[in-house]
Amino acid sequence: MFLNCHSYHSLRYGTISVQELIKQAVELNVGVLALTDINTITGIYEFHKLCKACNIKSVVGVEIREENEMLYICLAKGNKGIGEINKLLTEHNCDGKELQKYHPLFSDVTVIYPLSDFPEKLNRNEYIGIRPEELNLLVKSELKVYIPKMIILQPVTVKTKTDYNLHKILRAIDLNTLGSKLKPNDYCKDSEVFIQPAELLNKFKAYPQIIKNTEWILEQCHFEFDYSTPKNKKFFTGSKESDFELLTKLAYEGLKKRYPDCNRLAIQRVEKELKVIDMLNFSGYFLITWDIVKYSNRMGFMHVGRGSGANSIIAYCLGITDICPLELDLYFERFLNLNRKTPPDFDLDWSWQDRDTILQYIFDKYGKDHVAFCGTNVEFKYRSIFREVGKVFGLPKEELDELATKPIEAYDINSVSAMVHKYGKLLEKFPNQRSMHACGIIISEEPITNFTALEMPPKGFPIVQFDMHVAEEIGFEKFDILSQRGLGTINDTVKLIEEKRGVTINIRDTSISKDEAKCNEYLSRGKTIGCFYIESPAMRGLLRRLKCDNYKVLVAASSIIRPGVAQSGMMREYIFRHNNPDKFEYFHEVFKKELGETYGIMVYQEDVIKIALHFGGLAASDGDVLRRAMSGKGRSLSALQKVKDHFFESCKKLGHPEQLSKEVYRQIESFAGYSFCKAHSASYAVESYQSLYLKVNYPIEFMVSAINNGGGFYRTEVYIHEARMSGAKILNPCVNKGEYKTTVYGKDVYLGLMHVESLDSKTAALIPEERKANGDYASLENFVKRVSIGIETLQTLIFIGAFRFTGKPKHELLIEARFLLAGEKQNYKHLTLLDEPKKEYKLPEVARHPYEDAFDEIEILGFPVSVSPFDLLQTKYRGNVMAKDLTKYHKKEVKMLAYLISRKHVPTKKGTMFFGTWIDNEGEYFDTAHFPDNLSKYPFQGGGCYLLFGTVEVDFHFPTITILKMQKMPFIPDPRYALDKDKSYEAYQKIKEDVSMTQRKPYPQEQEIGLPRNRMI
User: Fold this and answer.
1) Burial of 614 by CB count in 10 Å (0-12 exposed, 13-18 middle, 19+ buried)?
2) Could you tell me which residue, 105 or 847, shows the higher pLDDT?
3) pLDDT (tens digit, 9 = 90+) per residue, 276-287?
4) Residue 545 φ/ψ, nearest 5 degrees
């Protein structure tokens, strides 16, 4: 009898999870149940599975609403019906088609109107729902005639009084209003709960026809779903046979290019993989991916294929990935095997500039009826919940700010704030809104509306109404199309080198960037700023500790930096063993055989699985549980816990000492949710090496491209510093030489107009466009005639030196600008056939302080360009040690003067500790550690230069200064405001620092790791 149930997927309306809904139905012995969430099918697959497990017949549908008004309830008679409902919603969501108030066109759907609003004439499939509290209205003669078309309507939205209050809060959040201002039509009735079926039938006993109608409708509705069959587009060419034929042809063509020496192992691997791919009907998936990559190559884009797909030699031969699985001993079964229950997917990265073009190609090629992004449920987040709920209660901003930080114990039990906390906690993990999955795309064989309705988020690509986990459960293999700035930097560098130097580089030829002596030297010294995955302070420190000088060590470094590996102590132990290969023993023969390449340390997901299988004797099925527990698809310790008992039982049977087994399992467990698969690390290493190759050989072009792609870990200033250290001459924006982005002429780097604060992007783009169309600007007056610009913006350009080509000092240009723009700003500018001769003015000479330009730069760009920050200090002292010599001062105290680049916060048991990154007066980088007790006396005070005093600790070739004292050093007063003391230090507030936070625990020290270095049998 319950054919209008809402779960919390009825966003900002429902209060019951799907599981809880079915639990209540079981408790009441309900035999048939209908899920009809508002304008969404998000929960129907979970609902169907759980109902089946509880022997409840599931009926699915949707409650159609428009602007809070219920139009009708749709119940699917079968799978065709849910497709019809999905199509209706999709046309409304994506095409803007109006929802029909009456008589929607369905052939396999039952429509139920509310008693308050129904058409005069009902179609065969249309009924009127009547609530128990509305039965007394049937005395009206105009309603009696409709009794043969009426059914029982007992909506379910809430469970308890608390739920009902929560529902009202959700409605107020949705309507962005105070709870006290809600109208009765804004929220559900308090009767929308489950009641005993017998009690419900008893209320309608005077109307047996209504009961019979309801039972008949529920009998007519069926929803069955085959979860085992793939739902993706089946074939690329039109048939399985022709797909396999094309895949085979492409694989062997690629084999000749990748392995020109007829590598026998490669041939055998190709043959083996092709058999598995054919048996699993996966040829089409490979070919669709290959086609996307082929289009990308045709467009001149660069991509990276990563993740477990890089374990496939077929993917390597097709150009989907650039990782040779033979070189790194990557086994195909990690990606695809006959026992695998769930299909894998390829992860493909493009530049952030190119990704939308790739997406458009996919949508255009396969059609909007067959392509969509995975959706994702954005949940109510802890801090934002209290703000949202607090607004409903009418709390002012100050109290809302407190709510986000203070615990509930801080409030009186009867206070409004306590109520906000109470209901806020109930909302945790509730879905709040649907959004687009970051990268997952579905390409379906059938019209995608057979499975889901689509929505159109602001991004402009449609999304399905379920997430990637549901997509996988119902048989979709997604295509992960990602974007990143690192690839943009590589791509732009290659183009810039060709444009400026006439040199063409095939950066996809990975052989040029895996064994270059100078690249290896840069790696070992951590000179990798700007290089994708290896530029952060932590990664550069790791590279130096390892003296990393080859590709394979870089692959390992890309994985051991991950939190799980580092937290378990295995990163620390790997560093020790790498530097001291003769000071440890493999504590079991299996570790020597399976993990010899990584000194017996588990570094990759594959290593954990190897040890679980070969040391622990676990079954392959348990290995797959481990794999999924360590991946983003099943990321939790609970999944690992399932195999724990099997592991120890098996270890005992194999005769392993209990202490050894416990230690091995501790290492396995620490990987939950954090480890990389080896192919993923290898993909990151390849891209990092490609970046490094360009940085080493074409440093100025590389840093210019890094700047134009928004940098990476650091702010723009740091990449500009790197360019200068590479020999570039950094010049301020110029209207005649500069572009919208930063550009380079030989060694002269002109900062882009995009970096000028207060210059809007349209004007910044227009200035070089007008110059290219009609020639260089001859003067300030000529510029003003050609570019529509306001006086304040023009003054900013003068202050930054954009008109220095005129040879006039800034004060003259400023006066001239005032004369030129004395009247109203002109909206339209154009060249004139005859220019009137300009009037010449003789202006007095004004003496300028040599550092005035630097302060203009700080104010407009956020950092000085014409001088170093050190030049602006009041002191001439530069420290007694430089960064390049720190390794000579192990355990000694040093005093240094340094400019702050970044700091990272790490919580400890005693408080927050900071790690700082700095440059010295010579421009070289070094790192510091700041413990909580020291920070209370010597805190950071924003960006700028500091005098540092501390003890050097050299840890495997990498020096860190543990700070004992620290003081921010004063800059000279701003000479532009020599007569205004209040303003003379304002510019310094613009000097920035990069601040990052982490919630990780401190990495364990050597004595805390306890990893055996001797044989344990």
Assistant:
1) middle
2) 105
3) 999 988 899 899
4) -65, -35
| Residue pair 777/735 in contact by the 8 Å Cβ criterion | yes
73-92 average pLDDT score: 96
Give the pLDDT mean for 723-747. 96
Q: What does the pLDDT look like over 501-528, one tens digit per residue?
A: 999 998 887 777 677 899 999 999 999 9
Residue 822 has pLDDT above 80, yes or no: no
Mean pLDDT of the chain: 88
Domain range summary for the chain, segments of one domain joined by +: 18-220, 240-362, 371-476, 506-686, 714-847, 869-996
CA–CA distance, 608 with 623 (Å, rounded to integer): 9
Residue 33, classed as helix, strand or coil, is strand
**Residue 1007 pLDDT grade (very low, low, confident, very high; cuts 50, 70, 90):** low
The candidate with the shortest Cα–Cα distance to 423, out of 465, 447, 395, 459, is: 395
Q: How far is CA 253 from CA 129, 259, 314, 514, in A?
A: 65, 10, 11, 24
Per-residue three-class SS string for 288-308 = HHHHHHHHHHHCCCCEEEEHH
Question: Rounded distance, CA 241 to CA 747, Å?
Answer: 57
pLDDT at 374 over 70: yes
**Tokens at residue 818, please?**
């005032």
CA separation, residue 694 to residues 203, 504, 528, 688, 716 (Å)? 79, 12, 11, 10, 19
Report the topology of domain 714-847.
Answer: DNA polymerase; domain 1 (1.10.150)
Type of residue found at 714? Y
What residues contact residue 798 under an 8 Å CB cut-off, 6+ apart? 780, 810, 813, 814, 817
Closest by CA position to 812, among listed 774, 768, 775, 779: 779
* Confidence (pLDDT) at 560: 85
Pick the CATH number of 869-996 from 1.10.3860.10, 2.40.50.140, 2.60.120.10, 1.20.1440.230: 2.40.50.140
Which run of H or of E encompasses 439?
strand 431-443
Please state the rounded mean pLDDT for residues 552-575. Answer: 82
Q: Of 425, 401, 944, 497, nearest to 698 (Cα)?
A: 497
CB 380 within 8 Å of CB 427: yes
Residue 152 pLDDT greater than 90, yes or no: yes
User: Domain 18-220 is of which CATH architecture?
Assistant: Alpha-Beta Barrel (3.20)
Give the span between the Cα atoms of 727 and 713, in whole angstroms: 22
